[in-house]
C-alpha cells in the first residue's frame, strides 16, 4: 500500500543539524584521549592546584603558545598603573643587618672576608633598611653564607619592591634537584625535594628556571647530557671542583669532563656587566609571555667575585629584572622562572631546614615548598663540608 | 556485495544516519588529532566547541519548549480561535 510506505518514510534531519551532530560527536571523540591524558597527569603526584596542573598539562601537550597568548592578554589587561602612594616601609627580610652583628662580635674576624656593598637605593628618600644586606640565617657567625635585601626598583612604580639574595660561593655549594615532572625525562630523578640527610647543611633553595620544553635549551645533570646544550644560551654551570659560574655556552651539545651540572635558560640578560641590548620581545626568549609584560619574574646573576645573586619581584619586565640584578652587582645573569606559581627563594633560619621563610612575603608558594616533592626542578644551596652554622 | 535494505523503519534509518555521522566525526577527530600540535590543544578546542554546541542545543530546546507552551496556552484561552484566523 503506497500510503503506508509514505508514512514509514523517516523524517530527514536538516543538513545543518547533521553537521552540528557530527561536530558534537567529533568533539566527544577528541575529548576521550585528551581526558585520559589529563586525568593520568592529574593523578600523578603533584603539589600544585588543579588549575595550575591543568595549565602545565596543556603546555606539555602542544598548548604552549595558546597558554602564552592567554597569559599575555590577561597580564596586559591587569597591568599595574604607574605612580601610586609612596611606601612607608619595606617588608622585613632576614634576621639582622650585617653591620649590627659585626659590631656585636667585633670587626676583626670578618674584616678579611668579602662582603657586597649595600645596594644604593634608587628612590629618594630611602626607606629604613632599603638596600641594606641582612643575614638570612640566625647564628651563622660573622660570615653569613646568604644575605638578603629589598629595595624599590623602579621610580615609575614606587610601590614595587624587589628582593635580592647574595650567596657566598666560597662557603656554599649549589646542587640541582630534578622535580617530579621537570625535566620530563631523566634517569636518576631522586626525591624531588631536599633530601633529609642534607637538610642540616641547607641554607637556601630557589626555583630552577623554565621547563626544557619552553626554554628550548639544554641540561647536564651529574655530568650526563639530559638535553643537548645550545650555544649562545645563558648557562648556570657547576664544575667538578665546586666552582659555580654563569656563562654564555660555547662548548657544543655535550659537556666537557669538568662539568657537573649545567642548566640553560634563554639568552643572557646581563653579559660582561652590560644589559643585553635585545631585551625586547623575540623568539629567542622562549615560548612564554612577552618580555614587556609585567609579571612575577626571577633571575640569577653572578658578581665580579664569583658569588651568586638571586632577584625576584612582582610586576617586572625582563629589562627591569635585569636592571635589578645589575644594580645589585651582577656582571652576568640569566632569567629564571616567571609567574607567581614558580618564583620562590626560601632561606632557612636554623640548621635542619628550620623556620623556612620566603624572601618576599608576597611570594605565592609556601616556604616549605622544597621540603616536600615539587613539580619543578630547583636549586639547593648547602654549606660546604667543614663549614658549620 | 550485500546491499542495505531500502524499506526500513524510521528508527533504523535514524540509527543508520547516526552511524554515518559517527564515522564522519571519527575521521574528523583523527584528522584534528593528527594535525594539531598536541592532544592538549585538541582537547582544549574540543571542550570549548562542545560547550558552545551544548549551549546552542540547550537554547534551541528551551526556545522550542517555550513556543510550544505558549501555543498550548493560547489554544486553552481561546479554544474557538482557529490557527487560520
What does this structure look like?
The complex is a heterodimer of chains A (389) and B (85). Chain A has 2 domains: 15-77, no CATH class; 96-383, no CATH class. Helices cover 22% and strands 26% of the residues of chain A. Chain A has 6 helices and 19 strands. Chain A has helices spanning 2-8, 15-43, 50-77, 98-105, 212-215, 318-328, and strands spanning 96-97, 134-135, 146-152, 161-167, 172-177, 202-207, 219-221, 224-227, 234-239, 244-248, 259-264, 270-271, 274-275, 295-303, 308-316, 330-338, 345-350, 354-358, 378-383. The longest helix of chain A has 29 residues, at 15-43. Chain B is mainly α. Chain B has one domain. Chain B is 76% helix and 0% strand. Chain B is flat and about 60 Å long. Chain B starts with 9 loop residues before the first helix and ends in an 8-residue tail after the last helix. In chain B, 12% of the residues are buried. The A-B interface holds A 5, 8-11, 13, 18, 20-31, 33-35, 37-38, 57-63, 65-66 and B 7-10, 13-14, 17-18, 21-22, 24-26, 28-29, 32-33, 36-47, 49-50, 53-54, 56-57.
What does the oligomeric state look like here?
Answer: heterodimer
Largest chain-chain contact? A-B, 33 and 35 residues
Computed CA radius of gyration of chain A, to the nearest angstrom: 25 Å
> Percent helix among the residues of chain B?
over 70%
Beta-strand percentage range of chain A: 25-35%
Number of helices of chain B: 2
Q: How widely separated are the two ends of chain B?
A: 56 Å
What does the largest sheet of chain A look like? 7 strands, antiparallel
Amino acid at each position: 500500500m503506497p500510503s503506508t510506505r509514505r508514512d514509514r518514510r523517516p523524517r530527514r534531519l536538516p543538513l545543518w543539524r547533521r553537521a552540528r551532530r557530527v561536530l558534537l560527536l567529533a568533539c566527544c571523540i577528541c575529548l576521550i584521549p585528551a581526558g585520559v591524558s589529563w586525568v593520568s597527569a592529574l593523578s600523578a603526584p603533584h603539589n600544585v592546584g588543579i588549575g595550575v596542573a591543568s595549565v602545565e598539562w596543556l603546555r606539555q601537550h602542544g598548548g604552549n603558545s595558546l597558554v602564552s597568548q592567554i597569559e599575555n592578554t590577561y597580564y596586559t589587561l591587569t597591568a599595574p598603573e604607574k605612580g601610586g602612594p609612596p611606601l612607608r616601609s619595606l617588608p622585613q627580610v632576614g634576621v639582622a643587618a650585617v653591620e649590627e652583628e659585626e659590631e656585636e662580635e667585633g670587626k676583626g674576624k670578618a674584616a678579611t672576608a668579602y662582603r657586597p656593598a649595600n645596594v644604593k637605593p634608587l628612590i629618594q628618600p630611602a626607606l629604613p633598611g632599603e638596600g641594606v644586606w641582612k643575614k638570612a640565617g640566625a647564628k651563622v657567625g660573622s660570615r653569613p653564607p646568604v644575605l638578603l635585601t629589598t629595595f624599590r626598583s623602579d621610580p615609575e612604580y614606587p610601590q614595587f619592591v624587589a628582593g635580592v639574595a647574595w650567596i657566598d660561593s666560597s662557603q656554599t655549594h649549589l646542587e640541582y634537584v630534578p622535580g617530579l615532572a621537570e625535566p620530563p625525562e631523566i634517569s636518576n630523578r631522586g626525591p624531588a625535594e631536599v633530601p633529609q640527610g642534607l637538610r642540616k647543611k641547607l641554607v637556601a633553595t630557589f626555583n630552577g628556571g623554565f621547563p626544557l620544553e619552553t626554554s628550548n635549551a639544554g641540561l647536564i645533570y651529574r655530568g650526563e647530557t639530559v638535553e643537548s646544550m645550545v650555544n649562545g644560551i645563558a648557562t648556570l654551570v657547576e664544575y667538578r671542583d665546586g666552582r659555580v659560574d654563569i656563562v654564555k655556552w660555547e662548548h657544543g651539545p655535550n659537556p666537557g669532563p669538568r662539568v657537573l651540572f649545567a642548566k640553560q635558560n634563554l639568552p643572557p640578560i646581563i653579559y660582561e656587566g652590560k644589559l643585553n641590548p635585545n631585551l625586547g620581545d623575540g623568539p629567542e626568549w622562549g615560548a612564554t609571555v612577552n618580555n614587556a609584560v609585567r609579571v612575577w619574574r626571577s633571575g640569577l646573576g653572578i658578581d665580579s667575585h664569583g658569588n651568586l645573586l638571586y632577584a625576584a619581584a612582582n610586576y617586572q619586565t625582563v629589562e627591569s629584572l635585569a636592571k635589578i640584578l645589575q644594580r645589585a652587582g651582577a656582571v652576568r645573569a640569566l632569567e629564571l622562572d616567571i609567574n607567581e606559581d614558580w618564583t620562590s627563594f626560601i632561606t632557612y633560619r636554623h640548621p635542619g631546614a628550620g623556620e623556612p621563610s620566603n624572601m618576599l612575603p608576597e611570594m605565592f608558594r609556601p616556604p616549605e615548598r622544597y621540603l616536600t616533592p615539587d613539580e619543578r626542578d630547583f636549586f639547593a644551596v648547602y654549606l660546604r663540608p667543614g663549614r658549620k652554622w | 556485495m550485500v546491499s542495505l535494505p531500502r524499506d526500513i523503519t524510521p528508527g533504523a534509518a535514524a540509527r543508520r544516519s547516526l552511524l554515518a555521522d559517527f564515522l564522519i566525526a571519527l575521521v574528523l577527530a583523527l584528522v584534528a588529532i593528527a594535525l594539531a600540535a598536541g592532544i592538549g590543544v585538541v582537547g582544549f578546542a574540543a571542550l570549548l566547541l562542545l560547550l558552545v554546541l551544548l549551549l546552542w542545543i540547550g537554547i534551541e530546546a528551551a526556545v522550542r519548549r517555550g513556543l510550544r507552551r505558549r501555543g498550548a496556552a493560547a489554544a486553552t484561552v481561546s479554544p474557538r480561535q482557529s490557527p487560520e484566523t
